[in-house]
């Protein structure tokens, strides 16, 4: 890396590829000869409309979004979708299934209860969310308006390794922390959404992929800005969209293309995660709370069995240029978030550091 950048293992907002930042930097005062920054231009201008359309096209192509689905660029934050989903989808039968596998799915289920009956299809809180439930464990209601789950549990470091089978019940998935890290069959889903700040762009953009036929049955008191139909009809531009973030997403998507698309990214990320887990599994000091078979390739949680050692590890790692390795307070210990933009070199260097720490303590 250059520009004196450090390896940033933040869970989010998280690092972006250096080449993307450099390109944004080069274009920051004068985008494409327009004489102005993307931050300064009208969202109704031709120049911005082209950025928007190109970004839509690239996203659809890289994610394999089929016909019949809309891609929305919203400002709600991933958390805003906790409300927007039940507001728009709950009315079909008045009830929905939620799989609680961590903090964010728990918050989503709590929010949904305001708008209908929530059936807890699974809940792994009894083991502090160290594993993902199996298909057989899911308590499914065939009459649910939708089935909701969170693909990657950012805080607990677990990740679904399969797509739940829910028959005719539409699948709704929070992919905030693993979108574009592995190919996804979008046609299996009703809604996929993600806050952009983990794997795609700066904070301020939320991407929603929605099967169009699911929109238009919102509860009568649904706020205008929380209505998928409004945003579909106006192509995400009922009001000012997060223009700068959409532009940054476009640059990120070009970078994903350079890595061989999502399939190329998947190979790189699988190798990074395997390297880190292997290093931890072969250490004397460290264990991973996430159970094998449920481990996340994006957020690697680990710890030593003494708080003193954890604190020492975090302090020494930070001094050595590995930033933001402290685990979430719900889990403790350490967490290395190794999203798409984390170079393989960063994980290699971290593994060397872990090995040396393991030897010396
Ligand atoms: C970060 C995160 C969220 C919250 O995102 P906001 O955009 O801050 O609301 C929700 N779900 C998951 C899985 C996350 O990682």
Features:
single chain, 361 residues, alpha/beta, Aspartate Aminotransferase, domain 2, Aspartate Aminotransferase, domain 1, 3-stranded antiparallel beta sheet, globular, binds pyridoxal-5'-phosphate
Give me a quick take on this structure.
The protein is 34% helix and 16% strand. With 361 residues, the chain is an alpha/beta fold.
If you had to describe this structure to a student in words, what would you say it looks like?
By secondary structure, this protein is an alpha/beta fold. The chain has two domains: 23-257, Aspartate Aminotransferase, domain 2; 261-360, Aspartate Aminotransferase, domain 1. It contains nine helices and 14 strands. The strands form four sheets. A seven-stranded mixed beta sheet has the order 2-10-9-8-5-3-4, with helices on both faces. The protein has a three-stranded antiparallel beta sheet with strand order 11-12-14. β3, α4 and β4 form a beta-alpha-beta unit. The longest helix has 21 residues, at 261-281. The model has no long low-confidence stretch (mean pLDDT 97). Residues 12, 77-79, 104, 150, 154, 174, 176-177, 195, 198 line the site of pyridoxal-5'-phosphate (PLP).
């Amino acid at each position: 890396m250059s520009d004196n950048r450090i390896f940033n293992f933040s869970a989010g907002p998280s690092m972006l590829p250096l080449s993307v930042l450099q390109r944004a930097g080069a274009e920051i005062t004068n985008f494409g000869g327009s004489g102005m920054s993307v931050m300064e231009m009208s969202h109704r201008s031709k120049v911005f409309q082209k950025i928007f359309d190109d970004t839509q096209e690239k996203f659809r192509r890289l994610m394999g979004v089929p016909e019949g689905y809309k891609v929305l660029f919203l400002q709600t934050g991933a958390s805003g979708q906790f409300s927007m989903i039940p507001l728009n989808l709950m009315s079909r039968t008045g009830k929905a299934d939620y799989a609680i596998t961590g903090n964010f799915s728990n918050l989503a289920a709590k929010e949904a209860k305001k708008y209908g009956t929530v059936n807890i299809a699974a809940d792994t809180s009894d083991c502090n969310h160290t594993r993902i439930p199996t298909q057989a464990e899911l308590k499914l209601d065939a009459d649910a308006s939708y089935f909701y789950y969170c693909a990657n549990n950012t805080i607990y470091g677990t990740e679904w390794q399969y797509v739940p089978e829910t028959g005719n019940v539409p699948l709704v998935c929070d992919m905030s922390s693993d979108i574009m890290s592995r190919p996804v069959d979008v046609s299996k889903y009703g809604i996929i959404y993600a806050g952009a700040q983990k794997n795609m762009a700066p904070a301020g953009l939320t991407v929603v992929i929605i099967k169009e036929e699911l929109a238009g049955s919102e509860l009568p008191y649904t706020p205008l800005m929380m209505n998928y139909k409004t945003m579909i009809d106006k192509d995400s531009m009922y009001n000012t969209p997060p223009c700068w973030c959409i532009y940054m997403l476009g640059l990120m998507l070009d970078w994903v293309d350079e890595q061989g698309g999502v399939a190329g990214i998947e190979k790189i990320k699988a190798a990074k995660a395997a390297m880190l887990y292997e290093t931890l599994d072969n250490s004397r000091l460290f264990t991973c709370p996430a159970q094998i078979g449920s481990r996340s390739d994006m957020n690697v949680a680990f710890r030593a069995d003494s708080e003193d050692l954890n604190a020492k590890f975090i302090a020494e790692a930070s001094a050595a240029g590995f930033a933001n390795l402290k685990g979430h307070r719900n889990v403790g210990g350490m967490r290395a978030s190794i999203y798409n933009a984390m170079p393989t070199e960063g994980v290699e260097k971290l593994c060397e550091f872990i090995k040396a720490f393991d030897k010396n303590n």
